[in-house]
Known about the structure:
This protein starts with 11 loop residues before the first helix and ends with a strand. 38% of the residues lie in helices and 13% in strands. The longest helix is centred in the first third of the chain and has 20 residues, at 60-79. By secondary structure, it is an alpha+beta fold. The radius of gyration is 20 Å and the shape is globular. It has helices spanning 12-18, 42-54, 60-79, 101-115, 124-129, 149-160, 171-176, 202-210, and strands at 91-93, 96-98, 178-184, 187-192, 219-223, 226-230. A hairpin with a 2-residue loop joins strand 3 and strand 4.
Amino acid sequence: MPLNTSNSQKQLDFYLGNFNIIYTPYNYVPQKYGVCLTRFSEQLIKNYFFYRADSGNCEHGIIGGYLLFDRFVKNFYKHTKNHNFDEEPYFGKGGLNWRREHLDHAAYISDAIICHNIWLSNNKELYEAYGLSPLIEEDKNKLSFVDYPLQFVLCLLDTIEPTKRFEELPPKVVLESIGIEIIEPTSIKIYWKAELQEEKNFLRWRDSIVNLKDWMKVETKEEGSSITIEW
C-alpha cells in the first residue's frame, strides 16, 4: 500500500464496503449464550489495520478473514433457506450436511485468520497513539495455546515457515535443509544444515523463531544448529 494512500483507503471500513461485507465475526451472535469466539474487539482490529496502512502495508490477512466469514454465511443462508433447524438440526444438500454450529466454526476460524498476523510491540508510545494498548508487549497480552489454540498454531507455523524467507532458493532446497521434530505434544525442535546459515536471510528467519517468546507464551532455546520451542 503506497504511503500516499488517502486516509479513507487506510480504513478497514473502506474495504468492507468495497467488498460488500455484511456479516463479520464481530457482529455475529454465537449459538451458545455467553460464548465469545473472537480475541480482540473489532475497533482494535480496525485501529491495527489503520496503523499498518499508515506505514504503507495492507494487512491482507485481516481482509481475507472478513471475506471468508461473509462469504461462508451468505453461502450457508443460500443453501439452507427455508430450513427449520429447530425441528431438524441437520440439513443435507449436494452431499453436504449443514448445521447452525458451522457458523460458530466459521466465526472462530475467521477471527484466527484476522488476528494471526497482528503483532505485539514494546513501543508503548507508538501503540498508544494508534489505540493499540492491548497489543503492548506484556505477558498478559501474549498469545497462548490454552486460550486461542487455532490462532496460536497459525502464528507459530507462519513464523517458522521457511520457504518465504529464503526466496532466492528453490522451495525443495529450503525444505531439504530444515527439519522439524516433535519432542512432545507441546514442544518441537527445528534444526538446519550448516550451509543454510550462509544464506542472507538466515539470521532474520532464526531471530523470528528465537523471539517468538516476545509475543507468544512460549519458551525458546537455541543449541548449535537447532531451536526448541516449548509451550
